[in-house]
Design a protein that fits this description.
The chain has about 180 residues and is α/β, with parallel strands linked by helices. It is about 35% helix and about 15% strand. Helix 3 links the parallel strand 1 and strand 2. Helix 4 (about 85-90) packs parallel to helix 5 (about 115-120). The longest helix is centred in the first third of the chain and has 15 residues, at about 40-55.
């Protein structure tokens, strides 16, 4: 939309991006524990839409499950596959070393966590993480360690409070 409105290519618009938000879309994001019977994926998509409306052109979106991809339209894919954090980090790595804030959002444990940690150690930029799973989920600790590898911030957000995702991303952008 932004590219169409201002007559610039997606690449040109990417120069104005303040944050690259990478969202987990593995099967567990279909869990309907995000309030009002909605799935984590539905609420995450809604919150990303709000964020992009409030900050047009400032937020790039990607998603990952078994593979990672850039979502030029700002809409994350429907839940499928596993949690391949290695693919997510490889895509985020393209913005590493820039002024773009890197934010990874996930609700679970990665398939190859050790390799993900090794990749995180190579980042020049700080990477923030937001855990959106159950309070007792094991992925929380992994995301804390992942962001610590880069000097980033790690937030925890219970799945039932996923409607605060937009606010938490904006808090990170202001930090």
């Amino acid at each position: 939309d932004i590219s169409s409105k201002n007559g610039r290519s997606i690449a040109e618009n990417f120069l104005a991006v303040k944050a690259f938000v990478m969202v987990d879309v593995s099967y567990s994001m279909a869990d309907t524990d995000a309030g009002n019977g909605k799935s984590r994926w539905e609420v995450a998509n809604s919150e990303l839409e709000k964020l992009q409306n409030q900050m047009p052109g400032a937020v790039a979106v990607g998603c990952f499950s078994s593979i990672a991809k850039f979502c030029a339209n700002g809409v994350i894919d429907a839940p499928n596959g596993g949690t391949n954090v290695v693919e997510a980090l490889a895509l985020l790595k393209h913005a590493d070393g820039s002024q773009i804030r890197l934010i990874l959002i996930s609700d679970g444990e990665p398939q190859d966590g050790d390799k993900g940690m090794k990749i995180a150690r190579t980042f020049k930029s700080k990477m923030d993480t937001i855990y959106v799973g159950r309070e007792d989920g094991h992925g929380r600790k992994y995301l804390q360690e992942l962001s610590a590898q880069t000097g980033g911030v790690s937030l925890r957000q219970d799945a039932s409070q996923l409607n605060l995702l937009n606010q938490n991303i904006q808090l990170l952008l202001g930090a």
